[in-house]
């Protein structure tokens, strides 16, 4: 069953609102309980202890400060720390240059993010989004 109301149990897969970045690199599905803004990594209890040993001066936010987590951009690759520049249409993934070189060399459709963003403000989907002034 989902813990603390922050995860969803769907079939046999547990889907977390935030998964531990370091565990995901090892194909583990662990719920994040912490966020490091300097590293831009979500961390579980085990990984935050290891992180704290290596990065003693990093301020890490806990679940009680989750509103601070969303304020950070996720424009960097979790695996390589590089800027996300392209979208692999074959795998429906955002990728950095290292990801493309290592994992997407054989993919048939890679799109540059600025090219995908061109004209977005004029699309019907964007026009249907609520205006930020009307949300206040």
TrEMBL record:
Q: Which residues form the B box-type domain?
A: 18-63
Asked if the Swiss-Prot or TrEMBL record annotates the protein with the keyword Zinc-finger, the reply is yes
Look up the domain of life of the source: Eukaryota
Q: Which InterPro entries match?
A: Znf_B-box
The protein's UniProt keywords, in alphabetical order, are: Metal-binding, Zinc, Zinc-finger
Could you confirm whether the keyword Coiled coil appears in this record? no
Protein name, as recorded? B box-type domain-containing protein
